[in-house]
Amino acid sequence: MSEDPARRGYRLVGCCVDGPGGGPAVDEALRLAAMAGAALSLVHVAESAGRFSGGRTAWSPPEDEVAAGIAAEAASWLSAMAERAGAEAVVLQGDDAAAAIAAWARERGCDVLVVHPHRRGAVRTALGSVTARLARGAPCPVLVVPA
């Protein structure tokens, strides 16, 4: 008899990390992964070179070089955080963080994403948020950790 995927429990917990501080989402993801005996991946989306630099000039380094530097910097602090947590560090890159995270979760077969919203009020209402977009469109359940 094959295992029912709905009853198998969590095998992979993904935790969206916005910066070096980690925050309450990491603490909750650690607890959840420990309770479930699941693997934990800390996921960060580094901005693309164009958004980060604010524009290009004739003296700008090549965009792929800037992008590699941004990703390397994120990988440095995220890897240290992941090592302390016994987790995998995943650095994605792009301008649409929610889409990048959802694609990663789908590809890896993530069972649950743990997120912590940062923006409130008019900014979130006008622009939407990564958390809100993931809650609507992620391929797995999304656990939103309050402040």
The helix/strand series, from N terminus to C terminus, equals EHEHHEHEHHE
Unreliable sequence segments: none
Going by CATH, the homologous superfamily would be HUPs
The gross shape turns out to be globular
Please compute the radius of gyration using only Cα atoms.
Answer: 16 Å
Q: Architecture in CATH?
A: 3-Layer(aba) Sandwich
- N→C terminal distance: 43 Å
Helix content: 40-55%
Q: How many domains in all?
A: 1
Structural class label: alpha/beta
Average residue pLDDT: 84
Task: Describe the protein.
This protein starts with 11 loop residues before the first strand and ends with a strand. The chain is globular. The protein has a five-stranded parallel sheet, sandwiched between helices. The chain has a single domain (5-46, 76-144), classed as HUPs (Rossmann fold), CATH 3.40.50. The chain is built from six helices and five strands. With 147 residues, it is of the alpha/beta class.
What is this entry, summarized?
The chain has 147 residues and is an alpha/beta fold.
